[in-house]
Structure formats: C-alpha cells, structure tokens
Design goal:
The complex is a heterodimer of chains A (about 120) and B (about 110).
Chain A lengths: L3 E4 L2 E4 L5 E7 L5 E7 L6 E6 L6 E2 L10 E5 L2 E6 L8 E10 L5 E5 L3 E5 L1
Parallel strand pairs in A: 2-11
Antiparallel strand pairs in A: 1-3, 3-8, 4-5, 4-9, 5-6, 7-8, 9-10, 9-11
Chain B lengths: L3 E2 L5 E4 L4 E7 L6 E7 L6 E7 L2 E5 L2 E6 L4 E6 L8 E8 L8 E2 L3 E6 L1
Parallel strand pairs in B: 2-11
Antiparallel strand pairs in B: 1-3, 3-8, 4-5, 4-9, 6-7, 7-8, 9-10, 9-11
The chains are: A mainly beta (about 120), B mainly beta (about 110).
Chain lengths: ~120, ~110
C-alpha cells in the first residue's frame, strides 16, 4: 500500500479566497491524482498531476480554477481558487502503485474537507 | 443516466448477517472492477479488485462480476460492527487503472 498524508485536514474559507492543499506520499510514485467528493455524489477525477509538466485536467475542470503543482515524485499541491460555496467538498489525493506484473492499485489520502462560506 | 449506479442506502443489518452490495454500469468496455471501503472522515481504502467476469474471495469478502448483465456485487459474510462504512464500487477500461469511474457509495450499518 501507500501512506499518503494531506494538509490541511479541514478548513473553513470565505468566498473569493484561495486554498492550497498539500499531498505527501511516503515513497516515489509515477502517477498522482486529485479527486473531489461532494455530498451524495461519486468521487470525480479533477486532474492528473504530472511531474515536471502541466497537469492533465478532466472535462469540466480548468487550470485557472484548480492549479496543480507536482515538483517531485512524492509531493503535489492542489489550489482551489476564487472559492464559492459550490466548492465546498472533500478533496482527495490519490496515487497509483504497481500491484503485480500487469495490474495497478490506486490508493487515497485521508482527504481535505473544505467548507466555503 | 450515470455510468455507474449504486444504491446509496443506508443498509442496516444485524451483526453476523450476510451483506450484499451491488452496482450496475452502462459502459461495456469496463473490464477492471474495484471495491473501496470508506470510513467516516477517512479516505477510501481499496478492498478488492477483479478483472473481467468471475468471483474473487478474500476472507469474509467475495467480489462477483457479471459482465453480461453489467452487474457487480460485494458480499460480506459474518458482518461485524467494524464493517459499518460506505462501500464504493469503481471501474475502468483503462489498463493503467488511471481513470476510475465511481459509484456514489452505499452506506452500511451493522448493529451489534
């Protein structure tokens, strides 16, 4: 498995401000991802954090709203910019690990619970 | 229509019961199927993964995939109060396991 930590674990922010969430993994991983989990909805992939290059965003998510950094193979940040109450959600970091010769497993961090007022 | 459908529950059972959790999906290209368990205020934890159709057993847990019906199940035998959590199904057609599509999760409550 993988040990993943996230900071902060929770925050309450005012609309219009930005929050940066940090994700740290206990060992080097090739793939890191950021997800959003809204109440009553399924986990939704925001983007793939690429080391040394721009993140790859999924449909409906843009870099200006969710800038991502990945300076090395164990660390990534997600910023939620110009927040509105609709951004209130749990944000989760995940990593991909090789689990066998041809299979992988995706592990998740504990999440950051964001409330925007 | 969502790609993956999952009854949100809650599903309440007494301790020792056999629990059946299910997901249906619409994309016939999905070939890797996973079950995650998520305790309150924690991240999802991978329980089991299955490739294509068939059964897989791990202790008290059995995962079943029926690709012809686009239906997957997770059975929990001899359920325990510690099994109380939200169970998420996930699936992908991606051999790199990168683009997972999740169900909304079923909340399970096991009473002593």
């Amino acid at each position: 498995s993988a040990v993943i930590s996230q900071k902060p674990s929770r925050d309450i922010c005012q609309r219009g401000t930005s929050l940066t969430i940090q994700c740290q993994v206990d060992s080097q991983v090739t793939m890191m991802f950021w997800y959003r989990q809204q109440p009553g909805q399924s986990l939704t992939l925001i983007a793939t954090a690429n080391q040394g290059s721009e993140a790859t965003y999924e449909s409906g998510f843009v870099i200006d709203k969710f800038p991502i950094s990945r300076p090395n193979l164990t660390f990534s940040t997600l910023t939620v910019s110009n927040m509105s109450p609709e951004d209130s959600s749990i944000y989760l970091c995940s990593v991909l690990r090789l689990a066998g010769e041809i299979s992988y497993e995706q592990y998740f961090g504990p999440g950051t619970r964001l409330t925007v007022t | 229509q969502k790609e993956v459908e999952q009854d949100p529950g809650p599903l309440s059972v007494p301790e020792g019961a056999i629990v059946s959790l299910n997901c249906t999906y619409s994309n016939s290209a999905f070939q890797y199927f996973m079950w995650y368990r998520q305790y309150s205020r924690k991240g999802p934890e991978l329980l089991m993964y299955t490739y294509s159709s068939g059964n897989k057993e791990d202790g008290r847990f059995t995962a079943q995939v029926d690709k012809s019906s686009k239906y997957i199940s997770l059975f929990i035998r001899d359920s325990q109060p510690s099994d109380s959590a939200t169970y998420l199904c996930a699936m992908t057609q991606d051999t790199g396991f990168q683009k997972l599509v999740f169900g909304t999760g079923t909340r399970l409550l096991v009473s002593p």
